Amino acid sequence: xxxxxxxxxxxxxxxxxxxxxxxxxxxxxxxxxxxxxxxxxxxxxxxxxxxxxxxxxxxxxxxxxxxxxxxxxxxxxxxxxxxxxxxxxxxxxxxxxxxxxxxxxxxxxxxxxxxxxxxxxxxxxxxxxxxxxxxxxxxxxxxxxxxxxxxxxxxxxxxxxxxxxxxxxxxxxxxxxxxxxxxxxxxxxxxxxxxxxxxxxxxxxxxxxxxxxxxxxxxxxxxxxxxxxxxxxxxxxxxxxxxxxxxxxxxxxxxxxxxx
Length: 260
Hints:
87% helix
């Protein structure tokens, strides 16, 4: 393993650990948001409660964006990871991508649920603000005097406060809908990433196949070399036998000549 490959492998694992932590936090925040949404409109509901819900939602969206960017970094590092580790790391990246997609889908579903509940509450508040209540001692709004009384002035002041609250809540809903659109964009990026992972996988498999071919070619060359060596040894052995036979014939001829 060269220095570049080792460095890429270490960085890949570091980012993968951060992604795993992010996915776990997204799931935890989604569960927390689900519980908080069920309390909207209850006695626990308040402006500070809604603000906390909005903060958790926005933080989770930011965390989702960071996770998507980290998955992209992992994909880019994958080609530099040593060949022996690439297949395992590729499967790990696929699993993290699937886990993130599942967590993101749940988070987006809860986002939409929150937006619907918030809109319902704002609509109800608008309807209440249009109903002018008569002052104490009168039975209907037609009996309200034309000159503003202290009661009416107080009602107008209360309505001004309600109007400001409604405006704040509508602004919060607009931010929530913008975050929902951002999550839609994250889904699009993930779809592109998954497609790109397919190209990376093809490249990895091609590299593996190339390595296998090279190994096979090496084996073939070794087999050929072994065959050449065996043939050479056989040829030498034949020549040696022929040489011995010729030598024995010469000795026999010399022996017979001297005997005669």
